[in-house]
Design brief:
Elements: E1 2-11, H1 16-27, E2 31-38, E3 45-54, H2 56-67, E4 72-79, E5 87-93, E6 99-102
Antiparallel strand pairs: 1-3, 1-4, 2-3, 4-5, 5-6
Length: about 110
């Protein structure tokens, strides 16, 4: 098991945070909440930062599941167990042509 920082960018519609947390709890035993912030002062676009302990395959499955959520427009995964500096190991951005990158299985 490794420790990851998971950042989700999403458009907040009433119960979006609740639904995202429910989805994450289906994939992980423990989810540590770090921060919920607005992208701008008055905005429905928000970022949710969480720390999860998981193996890479479970995290990848969770990320693929979150990609299907229409409110989610960005997913960023940083590996916190890779030494002093966190390393980027996954990113997804919903655009006209979605961008996604995930490192190979460890």
């Amino acid at each position: 098991m490794e420790t990851y920082l998971l950042t989700l960018g999403f458009q907040d519609n009433d119960f979006t945070v609740h639904l995202l947390m429910n989805t994450l709890q289906k994939h992980f035993e423990e989810v540590q909440f770090i921060e919920l912030s607005n992208r701008e002062e008055v905005s429905r676009y928000r970022k949710l930062r969480l720390v999860v302990n998981a193996d890479w395959n479970h995290l990848l499955a969770a990320s693929k599941s979150l990609e299907k959520n229409t409110a989610v427009f960005e997913i960023q995964i940083m590996d916190l167990s890779s030494g002093d500096t966190p390393s980027l190991c996954g990113i997804y951005r919903k655009q006209r042509n979605p961008t996604n990158y995930y490192r190979a299985a460890a």
